[in-house]
Amino acid sequence: MSILVLGGAGYIGSHTVYELIDGGMDVVIVDNLETGYAEAVHPKAKFYKGDIRSRSFIDSVFEQEKIDAVIHFAANSLVGESMVNPLKYYDNNLCGTKVLLESMVAHGIDKIVFSSTAATYGEPESIPILETDNNKPTNTYGETKLAMEKMFYWTSKAHGLRYVSLRYFNACGAHMSGEIGEAHNPETHLIPLILKVPNNQRENITIFGDDYDTKDGTCVRDYIHVTDLAQAHILAVKYLMDGGESNIFNLGNGVGFTVKEVIEVARKVTGHPIPAVMAERRAGDPAKLIASSAKAVEILGWKPQYADLETIIASAWKWHSTHPNGYKK
Ligand code: UFG
Question: How far is 194 from 315, CA to CA, in rounded Å?
């Protein structure tokens, strides 16, 4: 079976490629290397450098390769950046997906799994969050991901392709081998920023707000290991191969940790005191985001293996302590 992974040189994409190849599948990667890294491309995958917004490029990949299903990670994904430069997100996330879908329809490729996000919900109505809850994104990133889901929905009605949308909560951690990991530039995510302190790249970690209605006043998030996310993509491909209908699934552990708890676990894992300083709330942060992943467990048979936060942070530390500058030498 041959899987086309769009964005396979990025954080979640590269981890998914490693799991696909370990599972004996043939993998073709497309990435424009705007936010991905050539070093994250698995040596056994076939790699095409290019942009999904180019119809002739994506057509040429489908013409050269026999693809059974597509996994689509090729998008911009920083909430803050999406508020400063919204049209970049409409262009890459929506225009890219439109060109991709046109090409898939033209080439008769009818199965796709793609990255969505908890940001499609906005401020949650209740916890844990269910797939049937209302979607009211509070940032451009979440809005473009929700629009992508709708684009798939209407295209599936008209052209009969089937899709699975996976709404990730807080992706984190790194491959257990330490070979690949998280490398964003700029980095905005909590765990990699915390780990810059024991790596001597920051003096302290800033906590954005301690006056939320949570047990210690700091925000609660559902942290999910990147390899568990990767496994869910493989299960979703199998589900579509077995004739499953188009569907949407949340992916999280169903357990929330506060920012202070995450810092405390990082202190334990690294043996470093990691000083923390308090700051104002970051605009747009909901107090609590916790997934119900019961649907993915029941329908896809998904079972996260690395649910323990200490294991997650230890895997991230293995990567960051040996790659303090990410993929840069
Ligand atoms: N935080 C800090 N200090 C920091 C960085 C983050 O206190 O230096 C806090 C944030 O305020 C938040 C928590 O740590 O409460 C987690 O923040 P991240 O930036 O790591 O992650 P988010 O929850 O903001 O974002 C995640 C995904 C997004 C997705 C979003 C949905 O990374 O892709 O959830 O709301 F859009």
Answer: 14
What is the C-alpha to C-alpha distance for residues 55 and 103, in angstroms, rounded to an integer? Answer: 7
251 lines ligand 1 (CB under 6 A): no
Distance CA 145, CA 152 (A): 11
Q: Are 289 and 257 in contact (CB under 8 A)?
A: no
Query: Quick one: which atom of ligand 1 is closest to the CA of 218?
Result: 15
Is residue 302 within 8 Å of 292, Cβ to Cβ?
A: no
Q: Is the pLDDT of residue 260 over 80?
A: yes
Which secondary-structure segment (H or E) carries 250? strand 247-251
Active-site hit among 18, 37, 121, 141: 141
> What local confidence, expressed as pLDDT, does residue 158 receive?
98
- pLDDT for the residue numbered 328: 82
Q: Which residues pair with 280 in a beta bridge?
A: none
The rounded radius of gyration (Å) of the Cα atoms in the chain is 19
Cis peptide before 128 (omega within 30 of 0): yes
Neighbouring C-alpha atoms within 13 Å toward the C-beta of 262: 29
Ligand 1, atom 21, residue with closest C-alpha: 189
Q: CA 177 to CA 318: how far, in whole Å?
A: 9
Q: Compute the average pLDDT of residues 1-15.
A: 97
The whole-model pTM stands at: 0.97
Q: Are 31 and 40 in contact (CB under 8 A)?
A: no
Q: Is 141 noted as a catalytic residue in this protein?
A: yes
Q: Of 304, 305, 277, 283, which is closest to residue 293 (Cα–Cα)? A: 304
Q: Is the CB of 282 under 6 A from ligand 1?
A: yes
Establish whether residue 290 lines the binding site of ligand 1, counting it when its CB lies within 6 angstroms of any ligand atom.
no
Q: How far is the CA of 32 from the centre of ligand 1 (A)?
A: 26
- What letter does residue 224 receive in the DSSP assignment? E
